[in-house]
Amino acid sequence: MDLFDGELGGRDDSNVEAGGSCSWVTVVVIGIVVLIVVLMNWLWDLLHRLI
Predict the structure, then answer these.
(1) Coil, strand, or helix at residue 45?
(2) CA torsion angle for 17, 19, 6, 12 (degrees, to 10)?
(3) CA distance 36 to 22
(4) What angle is formed at CA 1 by the lines to CA 16 and CA 13, rounded to 5 degrees?
(5) What does R_g of the chain's alpha carbons equal in angstroms?
């Protein structure tokens, strides 16, 4: 089972190919994680300046 497969029902075949593609779900999750890291860094800098 591929947890990051964006389509309902998962993959049609169970063969794993080398250099497989990633789904839109993976791209969105990585984007959200990067955004959270950037916001945490910005907030930490702001807090550091206030103290």
Answers:
(1) helix
(2) -10
(3) 21
(4) 45
(5) 18
Question: What's the rounded Cα separation, in Å, for the pair 51 and 44?
Answer: 11
Let me know the angle formed at the C-alpha of 15 by 9 and 16, rounded to the nearest 5 degrees: 100
Read off the pLDDT of residues 15-49 as tens digits, 9 standing for 90 and up. Answer: 555 556 678 888 899 999 999 999 999 999 999 99
| Closest to 26 measured CA to CA, from 41, 39, 13, 7 | 7
Q: What is the predicted pLDDT for the residue at 36?
A: 97
Structure tokens, 38? 């950037």
CA–CA gap between residue 27 and residue 21 (Å, rounded): 11
Q: Is the pTM of this model over 0.70?
A: no
